[in-house]
Amino acid sequence: MENIFDDTYFMKKALEEAEIAFQEGEVPVGAVIVIDNRIIARAHNLTEKLNDVTAHAEMQAITSAANFIGGKYLKDCTLYVTLEPCQMCAGALYWSQISKIVYAASDDKRGFTVMGTKLHPKTKIIDGILSDEASQLLIRFFEQKRRLN
């Protein structure tokens, strides 16, 4: 029997969160955190709504997942996020000891890889899952922003 709960399935859930962010005028980044094929946290950027530069999708998801499991470490959890985490989020992910990070689009200007930020040594990283879809959503958002300004 085929397992429908693969990286693409969960990235689609993160893209749904990014779409919500888009509709709310936030940079369209969405995230979900999964343990044992179960989503335990859903989040999207809230920086505009909360007037808080730290309210990235990943930060919101980390807090929600930690509350769900009742502990600060996200061992055995996977983060699915539509854009490569920034340096701040990578630092929080390091401290959370998350087991796996799957991201869609790379961030060539502010992503953790270009910034040289290290993740926890046991964290596995997979990139490029549904990257075209995530990139197109970001492009559409910023094109719309430029037209309105």
List the helices and strands and how they pair.
Blueprint: H1 7-23, E1 30-35, E2 38-44, H2 47-50, H3 57-69, E3 78-83, H4 87-96, E4 100-105, H5 112-115, E5 124-127, H6 131-148
Parallel strand pairs: 3-4, 4-5
Antiparallel strand pairs: 1-2, 1-3
Helix pairs in contact: 1-6
Supply database-style keywords:
about 150 residues, alpha/beta, 5-stranded mixed beta sheet, 6 helices, globular
Q: Would you identify the regions where 5 or more consecutive residues have pLDDT less than 50?
A: none
- Our estimate of the beta-strand percent is 15-25%
Number of helices: 6
User: Residue-averaged pLDDT, rounded?
Assistant: 95
Tally of strands:
5
From the spread of the alpha carbons, the general shape counts as globular
Instruction: Estimate percent helicity.
Output: 40-55%
Helix and strand run = HEEHHEHEHEH
Largest sheet: 5 strands, mixed
Structural class, please?
A: alpha/beta
Q: Gap between N and C termini, in Å?
A: 51 Å
Rg, rounded, reads 14 Å
| Order of strands in the sheet with most strands | 2-1-3-4-5
